[in-house]
Amino acid sequence: MSDDATGNSTSHFTLTTMVRDSSLELIAAGELDMTAAFKFESRVDALLSAGGVQAVVVDLAQVDFVDSAGLGALLSVRDHARRRGIDLQLARISDPVRKLIDLTGIGDLAGDVTDHRRR
């Protein structure tokens, strides 16, 4: 079992990654805005491209804001995972993120949610 914890931050956003066997867990916190979206997408795409990942869980419990760029990054990460045959699930979606998903009608982004309510 391999465990790699990495923090990647912008001014108001952090992304912690943990790799265990063939699973990747991403824990996002803060504001997934235009500034953070590019770094988020680039970091996740690099992890997916490295190979060996069969499943990804994105924990959004600590994300308190997502703008259109952040939403685009989440959609892009989902698409990258699908193209590689990687299962991607959103977990513990915060209320602000849930509202955005509901308002934009992109429920398929949260289609594989393991637990959509904040705990």
TrEMBL record:
Domain STAS, residue spans: 30-119
Pfam families cross-referenced by the UniProt entry: STAS
GO MF annotation terms: anti-sigma factor antagonist activity
Membrane-spanning intervals of the chain: none
Gene3D superfamilies: STAS domain (3.30.750.24)
Family that this chain belongs to: Belongs to the anti-sigma-factor antagonist family.
Entries under NCBIfam families matching the protein: ant_ant_sig (TIGR00377)
Protein name as it appears in the record: Anti-sigma factor antagonist
Species, as recorded: Solirubrobacter ginsenosidimutans
Lineage: Bacteria, Bacillati, Actinomycetota, Thermoleophilia, Solirubrobacterales
